[in-house]
Amino acid sequence: MGSGNSVNIKNLCKSYGYRKLFAGLNITVPDKSVLVVLGHNGAGKSTLLRIISGLVPATSGRVEVVLGGRVLSASERRMRMGLVSPDLELYAELTALENLEFFAGVRGIPFSREAAGELLESVGLKGRGRDYVGTYSSGMKQRLKFAYALLHDPYFLVLDEPTSNLDEQGIAMVDGVIRRQREKGIVILATNEPREVSYADQTVSLA
Fold first, then answer.
1. pLDDT digits (tens, 9 = 90+) for 87-128
2. What is the value of pTM for the model shown?
3. 51-74 pLDDT tens trace
4. Which of 14, 51, 61, 91 has its CA 20 to 30 A from that of 6?
5. DSSP letter for each residue of the chain
């Protein structure tokens, strides 16, 4: 890996009490590639992605996120990752632009309404930035989650069920996002959708 950028999962184990989700996971995700995580509901796909994102601790083992040849700290990892997840809470009482401005403030990154408007347009929400998110359909909310994930131009993009609630145009948007991200960084994606396996440079299946 000449670029010095990778995600390295080393002997990873996660248990909840006596229930073991997975154990002994060893995966290296090299630069400019896509890892697709497969498995039935409850197998631990979302938990694995949360561990990789630094949101949930592993029971044992570790995840090293390497950028420029250096292992990122937990806080640095969160700043360099974008996450699309069913667990991401959007604020229904705010507009889409206000949601993005709030998230930018939380991350401590500059916010431009013009740039945010362009980002919303890129995910298929042109002209909807001033609409309250409470009026959005489930598909529009999923598109807004992508805008949130891409707000800080992340090097690592983590996607949990990325095409959930999306129509054909939305799926095409996701295709474009993954293609562009793969050209510049790393994508890790969890899915039960057979068509999404085609994104993969490598796969891992959780029992």
1. 899 999 999 999 999 999 988 889 999 999 999 999 999 999
2. 0.93
3. 999 999 999 999 999 999 999 998
4. 14
5. -TT--EEEEEEEEEEETTEEEEEEEEEEEESSEEEEEEE-TTSSHHHHHHHHHTSS--SEEEEEEEETTEEPPHHHHHHHEEEE-TTPPP-TTSBHHHHHHHHHHHHT----HHHHHHHHHHTT-TT-TTSBGGG--HHHHHHHHHHHHHTT--SEEEEESTTTT--HHHHHHHHHHHHHHHHHSEEEEE---GGGGGG-SEEEEE-
> Which residue type does 152 have?
H
SS (H, E, C) 66-120: EECCEECCHHHHHHHEEEECCCCCCCCCCEHHHHHHHHHHHHCCCCCHHHHHHHH
Specify whether the CB–CB gap between 99 and 90 falls below 8 A. yes
